[in-house]
Design a protein that fits this description.
With about 60 residues, the protein is α+β, with helices and mostly antiparallel strands. It has a single domain, classed as YaeB-like fold, CATH 3.30.2310. It contains 2 helices and 3 strands; from the N terminus they run H-E-E-E-H. The longest helix is centred in the first third of the chain and has 12 residues. It is globular, with a radius of gyration of 11 Å.
């Protein structure tokens, strides 16, 4: 969880740092330790960042987003 917190703080400072997800083009994704992916959405108009999901990469990600 410490690594998730660290990445979340980084995303708050630089919301467009990570690439758009290949699974859903409305989300961005960050590779986390232990093969997890953190998905988030940036609403630039309202200046809001929504942490969407934290999923293990072995899952069927397309069906879970």
């Amino acid at each position: 969880m410490a690594e998730v917190d660290k990445k979340a703080k980084e995303i708050v400072k630089f919301p467009l740092l990570y690439p758009i997800s290949i699974y859903d083009d409305s989300l961005r994704s960050v590779v986390m330790p232990y093969k997890y992916l953190l998905f988030y959405h940036v609403d630039e108009v309202n200046q809001v960042i929504e942490m969407y999901r934290l999923l293990h990469s072995a899952k069927n990600l397309s069906s879970m987003l």
